[in-house]
Amino acid sequence: MNDQFFLKMENIKKSYGHVEALKGVDLILKKGEVLGLVGDNAAGKSTLIKILSGAINMDYGRIFIDGKEENICNPADARNIGIETVYQQFALVDNLPVYCNVFLGRLISKKFLGGMFPILDKSKMEKEALRILSFMGIKFDSARARVSDLSGGQRQAVAIARAILFNPRILILDEPTSGLAVKELEKIQDIIINFKNKGISVIFISHRLESIFATSDRIIVLRSGVKVMDEENKKITSQYVVEKMFGLESKKV
Fold this sequence. Notes:
The protein is an alpha/beta fold. The protein is built from 8 helices and 12 strands. The strands form 3 sheets. It has a 6-stranded mixed beta sheet with strand order 6-9-10-3-11-12, sandwiched between helices. Strands 2-1-4-5 form a 4-stranded antiparallel beta sheet, with helices on one face. A two-stranded antiparallel sheet has the order 7-8.
């Protein structure tokens, strides 16, 4: 494996009819790196991450993980190689408690009456849900709280915890700070930095450049399906990023 990257997406192309959503985009991601992915509407961000997460198939290109080429045709393929995605739409069930949402689709059962009637192992799921949230740096008094009673930031934390249950090597966060208050925004940023410190690679998509700069090591800008910038964030300014997003002239500082 090349020491410079853990994930490599090479010459990724995707068209919808006559519209070229991606025109040969390259992306690399190091282990334990937070990569900020930004761009205006229709820049190609969502298309790129949906290809990586298996939600859609690319027309052309190659994807490597740890130096091995991978064929990602569906979300199960992505999950099997350690890629998890949290989309802007949480897909949580409001009337269920936190632990059920964390284990949604993977509820744990235990034997009852000699195994004749399996029942939910609520205690085990509660304990594991709290452990995962603690790993993320989030404290919940109880995993039995209903999701409908949670704040926006807490709901986002639950959605991320569900992805973490699979022990991902790469976590894609699609607009996780959208609609959050300042304190909740800061908490999600803390979660992202915590993942980095634990060696999880993160691709962070957000329209909030302040959050991108607060968490990421490097920033990629897409514009009209083309990668127009790939820089360490400490070498650039938000003004420079905005100008790259909209095709304006500027000098890097």
